[in-house]
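Allow me, if you will, to draw on your knowledge of protein folds for a short while. I have a record of one protein: its chain in single-letter code and its fold written as discrete structure tokens. Kindly check, if you would, that the fold set down in the tokens agrees with what the sequence suggests. Thank you for your consideration; the sequence and its tokens are set out here:
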Amino acid sequence: MLRAMSRRSPSTGRKSLRPLRFAIFGAGFWARCQLAAWREVGGVECVALYNRTRARAEAMAQEHGIPAVYDDAAQLLEEVRPDFVDNITEVGGHKPLSILCAKHRIPCICQKPMAASLADARAMVAAFRRSKTPLFVHENWRWQAPMRALLEALRSGVIGTPFRARLTMISGFDLWANQPALAHLEQFILTDLGTHLLDTARACFGEARSLYCQLHRTLRPAIQGDNVATLLMSMGAAGTSVTVELGYARTPLERECFPQTLALVEGPLGSLEVGPDYWVRLTTRQGTLARRHAHPRFPWADPRSDVAQASMVPCLRDLLGALRGEHVAETTGTDNLKTLELVHAAYASARRDRVVHFPTRPTP
């Protein structure tokens, strides 16, 4: 339980929750977006900011009214003692800065991907387990409005147990124009986009029993890494056949849906489809019911990717409830480790051109 998490109102005697004090590690683009999302959630107060380049931290702190700035993360934790840390640094900072939080027994939310390697991710989870401190991963894709509608419909059993599904996120969008550093990654599509869709697939269909992956590098030499992937998995106790299609290929498409994820799920009682523009269709023998699950529009979100940025708000709301001890978060470090295992198994499958089999796990 976090320190001084609540106080009693003198007039009513009821408990009122005080805002949780938190620090941000990182001062880049996503740190600004996440701070804006926290302000939509409420119930928190950003009291300190760390960045290895102090000038960037000072500029962001002045812009957003953050009272304390540090270029030494350990000093921040010792002097400020925040209730939690939101680690929004580049992936190289995820392991060392998160483990620093574990050493100080301060809960940490780490940006995805949790780590650059499976060994580093396992070390992070182990460090927080030893210190009995919560570790969460900011994995927001499953919180997108259409994905959430799909997940809730599946949990209701309205189409029965799915036997086949497809999740698709393909786009001709030039992602590298705004994020040129991504062009130099040897492993790109699965670590950047695949973590999102594989996490969503796990939430919808359970744990993978087997996986086969094919990768393509269609944009070399300009883009070093893989940019197209196709995965086939057997998932959950029922062995649902799940195809995941990923691609940033600059290929002209009749209808560009960036950054929407499309889906089709078949079951014995009907089908569910997530189509363009956030339409979710349920088809049974009684006919088709269609509803548009549009996301909230926030003034701070980039209109080109606001479905993804809007999903940060319910994701953080879930994590805040877990920090307050109200429930178990959906995207803990332990849970996200299973997603990273799929990512690295997919690379191994593509490299060896073989199916990867996993030990049987309980399905949530």
